[in-house]
């Protein structure tokens, strides 16, 4: 399969620049796999498609304000860091702009001295490993000096930083939001639970590799970046019980999907565990856990649209994207949703 097979035309004005208020008033296209029927609804209608005993799995990772601006100590030159992931202790893999100013041994200052950094290594793709020094906890410091790392296709300033977090975000560590979850309100989640639908939590810290373009023609040659995940025992037991009762496991977002399918592929079952996954899901993949998927509309030729195509079918997925463009759905991180059941 070729990367170009996943291309579609999208008018610039359909790339959502700001989130819908309230969160659950975004539109939702409902795709029924068995009947091939399509409905146009709103996200608050989600509850009508869930049954007692079903389980929603959400990713509770929280985005860190990982974009920081500072200066190089010896020259005063301006620098931008985007912290991608914590490697160990105070060492982070970091995207640096401009990279030519960040040779090994280079030192930088951020936030009027609240944070100091030194480049200690350069990895294969050009990212830097930097050692960070601050008096407080690094996350506390980043809350003071950092900015939310919005995707490059969002050009408008985000007024409320919390709108790029899910209402259930808890575990700090993502460089980007698990955006399918942005549509949920606390009230909607309460209504879902009141209907007897379970909500289970996993953690997958989203890296920028999620958004990196596929640069090879042959889809199978693409290599995913690894991301850290964790499934607690409570969630693993919930999924096992849901399956045993003949009910559905519905992943909220591609990150929740990749977490579940990674663990099932590795262990043959869902169990409590943590580790790193670089699973790449594209058409031909056999799903072992998922019965449904909630997701946004993704970039052309991205690994995310490939995942959706694997679950819903390639031809049907590409037709749905044409329909979404025609019906004026809003696309990408702050855009509308689809429910595939």
Structure characterization notes:
The protein has helices at 138-145, 186-194, 233-244, 254-267, 303-312, 314-326; strands spanning 27-31, 38-42, 55-59, 61-63, 67-72, 78-88, 91-97, 107-110, 115-122, 128-133, 171-174, 198-204, 227-231, 249-252, 273-277, 292-296, 337-340. With 341 residues, it is of the alpha/beta class. It folds into 2 domains: 3-63 and 160-340, QueA-like, CATH 3.40.1780; 67-145, QueA-like (Thrombin, subunit H). The strands form 3 sheets. Strands 2-1-17-16-14-3-12-13-15 form a 9-stranded mixed beta sheet. The two termini are 25 Å apart.
Task: Briefly characterize the structure.
Helices cover 19% and strands 28% of the residues.
Relevant terms:
Thrombin, subunit H, 6 helices, 341 residues, nine-stranded mixed β-sheet, 2 domains, QueA-like, alpha/beta
Secondary-structure element order, as H and E?
EEEEEEEEEEHEHEEHEHEEHHE
Number of structural domains: 2
Number of strands: 17
The chain-level mean pLDDT equals: 96
The CATH homology group name of the largest domain: QueA-like
The general outline is globular
Trace the largest sheet across and list its strands. Answer: 2-1-17-16-14-3-12-13-15
Estimate the strand proportion. Answer: 25-35%
Tell me the radius of gyration. Answer: 20 Å
Q: What is the name of the CATH topology of the largest domain? A: QueA-like
Uncertain parts: none
**What is the highest CATH level, the class of the largest domain?**
Alpha Beta
Helix content: 10-25%
How widely separated are the two ends?
25 Å
Biggest sheet statistics = 9 strands, mixed
SS content category: alpha/beta
CATH architecture of the largest domain: 3-Layer(aba) Sandwich
User: What is the count of DSSP helices, taking H or I runs of 4+ residues?
Assistant: 6
